[in-house]
Amino acid sequence: MVGLGPGGQETLTPQAKEALLQAEVVVGYTTYLKLIESLIAGKVILASGMKKEIDRARAAVVEALTGKHVAVVSGGDPGVYGMAGPVLEVAPAGLAVDVIPGVTAATAAAALLGAPLTHDFAVISLSDLLTSWEVIERRLAAAAEADFVLVLYNPRSKGRAEHLQNALEIIKKYRDNSTPVGIVKDYGRADEKQIITTLALLLPEDVDMTTTVVIGNSQTKLLHGRMVTPRGYRL
């Protein structure tokens, strides 16, 4: 499994790039494969769309069992809402499976916004395709009450337009309206956009599935236009 990072090839690690170059077969979600077209030209490509993760994992295992070098790609890190889990679950004993890490959206977005993750944080996906919304609500409430900085993945889509607003209402029970919030959309791509606002002023329409939302904790502040969560050092 190979993590592609959050956007363009500039965040692809040398280890990940080498794995792609060595691969004979590359398996992945169509959108992610387009990001690395120049690196995988001439290879056998097995592409598929959303909700086909298990199919991709099984196809990769079939190819690997013939002795081929197979790279299964994931956006960000393959072990963070990625393909590492499905592949390891379907791979038979004895099949060598390497997990090559990638820069995940949480840390990439944080770097653009400043330093919002320098203390404890929680990453929560708002997608209820594989996790019930009731479970997501409980996790949001628990993490917000515990004063974690929150990173929201898959925050809003056409089919789940209300999920972000519902999540914000839960978080507002435990956070001041002036809490800094950062939005990073399309990291590393031509349409990259970042917004720093507050919990009260966050506009759900600024957010979609290619957006990462970072919500500060009670100590997060704005310094010279950047989000900073103090680590606790005495300055």
What does this structure look like?
- With 235 residues, this protein is of the alpha/beta class.
- The protein has 2 domains: 2-90, 3-Layer(aba) Sandwich (Cobalt-precorrin-4 Transmethylase, domain 1); 105-228, Tetrapyrrole methylase, C-terminal domain (Methyltransferase, Cobalt-precorrin-4 Transmethylase, Domain 2).
- It has 8 helices and 12 strands.
- A 5-stranded mixed β-sheet has the order 6-7-10-8-9, with helices on both faces.
- Strand 6 (121-125), helix 7 and strand 7 (149-153) form a beta-alpha-beta unit.
- The termini are far apart.
Describe the secondary-structure layout.
Layout: E1 2-3, H1 14-22, E2 25-29, H2 30-34, H3 37-40, E3 44-48, H4 53-64, E4 70-74, H5 84-90, H6 105-113, E5 114-115, E6 121-125, H7 133-145, E7 149-153, H8 163-171, E8 180-185, E9 193-198, E10 211-215, E11 221-223, E12 226-228
Parallel strand pairs: 1-4, 2-3, 2-4, 5-12, 6-7
Antiparallel strand pairs: 7-10, 8-9, 8-10, 11-12
Helix pairs in contact: 4-5
